[in-house]
Amino acid sequence: MSFFLFRKRSKPPSLAPEQQEHRRQKIETLKAGRLAALTLSFTNELIEKYGPRLAGSDASRQAALQIQAAYEPFCDQSETEVVRIDTTFHSFPLQLALYLYPVILVLLLIGLPYLGLLLFLAYLWYAARTLYFYKPLGKLSKPNVEGVNVHAVLEPQGEVRHTLLFTSHHDSAPLFRYNKLDRISYAKKVALPILLFFLSGLFNAMHLITELLEGRLFAFSLPPLGMGILCLLLLGATPLLLPLKNFYLQEGSPGAGDNLVSVGMTVQLARYFHWKKKSCNDPLSHTRLVFCSFDGEESGLEGSKAWYQKHKEEMSGSLVLNFDAIYHADKLTFLERDINGTQRLSSRLARRCVQIAKDMGYEAVSESIPRLAGGTDAGRASLAGLEATTLTSVAWDDRTKPSVYHTAKDVVSAIDAKAVEMALSIAIRLVELVDSDRLWEVDEMQGPAKKEVESEEPELVFTKLTHR
User: Fold this and answer.
1) One domain for residues 395 and 448
2) Which of 246, 261, 280 is at the close of a domain?
3) Quick check: 407 and 253 in contact, CB under 8 A?
C-alpha cells in the first residue's frame, strides 16, 4: 500500500480568491499524523502509570478517571458511571465443566444415562449461551466487582440533528495460562480436557440409545462391560481436567492495542473537533459527538451493556463507530456481524465506511468477526437498536504477523502508527459527512449524477504529515 506524502512547497500554486478558504480548510483537516502520535503517547503514558487493567480492578478504575480528565478540556460535559461486572464470565463455565464431568460419568455407571445426557446437554446450552452468544443466565451471573464507564459529549453549534458515538474500552484481558503456540502443552492442558468432557456425554448418549432400542429406558441397566471399563478409566482421568480451573491467570495484558489505543483515539478526536471549534471557528453545525470508554468489555461486554441500557432512549437514532484492536495498517476491517458472528451490525454503515476509506486511498473490507473470536462493544450498541460497526485492524488469519492481543506482548511498539492515523482520518471524514448530511449520498445517487458530484468535489486523502 502506498501513502501520499505532503511536503512543504517553496512556492505554492496560486489560487483564485474563492478557492483560498476552501484550501485552508482542507489542510487543517489533514492532522491525522499528529493526532496518531498523541494517541500513542497517551496510550504509553497510561500503561506506564497503571499497567494491566483487569475489568473492575483498581488500575482500571484509576485509568477511567484519567480518561475522564483527558476528555474534560475538549468536551462540554464528561461523566463516569459505576458498573457492576462479573469477572468470572469466561472462567466459570470452564470450572463448571470440571465439576460436572465426574457426575455425568457416575450417572452412566449407575444406569442413569438419560440423566447424565440431560446434564451434559444442559451444560452445553449454558456454555454456548454464555461464551458464544454472550447471553448469560442472570441467576448464574453474579457481579463481583465495580468498574467505571466514562463518556463525554461535544455539542454542535446549532440544533442537534445527528448523534455520532465513538466508543472503545479501557480494561485489558486476563492472560491465558496456556500458550497456543506451544501446541503440545496446549493439547494436553486444553484440548484433551475438552475431549474427555465430550466423551462423557457421548458415552451417555450411546448407552441411552441402546436402552431405547432394547425397550428398557427407565429400567436399571448397567452399561456393557467394555463401556463400563472405559467409563472407569475416564473417571480416573478427572485430574486431567484440572487445567480448566486455572485457564486464566490473575494477571492482565498491557492492553495497548486491545484496547487502550482506541481510547486514546477517542480523546484525540475530541481534541480535534474542539480545536476546529475554538481555534478555527469551524464548529460542527448539527452533529453531537459522544465519546465513550467502557470497562468490562473483556468480561462479556458488560460495561457497554449497562451503558446502552441506561442511555438507550437518549441515544435513539445514533450512529456508532466502535474502535477495537487497532494494529496493522493493511488490515482495516469494518464488522458487519459481531459476537462470534451471531449479532448483526449495520452492514450499511460498515460498507459506507469501507467506501470512505477507499475514497481516501486506503484498503479496507467489511466482514463478520470470525467464529470463536469473541465480540466487541458494537454488538451491545446493535442490541440497543443503534446502527453500529466496529473498526478493527487485527490479523485474524495472517500468521506472518505477530498475534499479540491478549498476551503480555500487547504493548505500544506492537501498534503500527499508520493504522492509528488511518483510523482517525476515517473517523474525521465520517463526522464531516454526517454533519453535512452527505453520509448516505453514495446510496441515493446513481450513474451520471453520482459521477458529476464526484468530479465537482476533489478527493480528500488523509495521510501522514510527519516523517516518522
Assistant:
1) yes
2) 246
3) yes
Looking at 201, 230, 246, the residue that finishes a domain is 246
Residue 408 lies in a domain: yes
Q: What is the pTM of this model?
A: 0.86
Residues 203 and 280 in one domain: no
Within-domain flag for 128? yes
User: In 3D, which of 380, 360, 359, 378 has the Cα closest to residue 369?
Assistant: 378
Q: In 3D, which of 325, 134, 349, 111 has the Cα closest to residue 227? A: 111
Give DSSP secondary structure letters for 133-167.
Answer: T----TTT----EEEEEEEEEE--SS---EEEEEE
C-alpha of 73 from chain center: 27
Question: Is residue 2 one of the residues assigned to a domain?
Answer: no
Phi, psi angle pair for 412, to nearest 5°: -60, -35
Residues of the domain holding 304: 17-88+145-177+251-456
| Of the candidates 171, 117, 174, 219, the residue with the CA atom closest to the CA atom of residue 407 | 174
In a domain, residue 5? The reply is: no
Q: What is the mean pLDDT of each run of 10 residues along the chain (468 residues)?
A: 36 41 38 91 98 98 98 97 96 96 95 94 96 89 94 97 98 89 83 96 92 75 85 95 92 97 98 94 97 98 98 96 97 98 98 97 96 96 98 87 90 97 97 96 49 41 37
The pLDDT assigned to 1 comes to 39
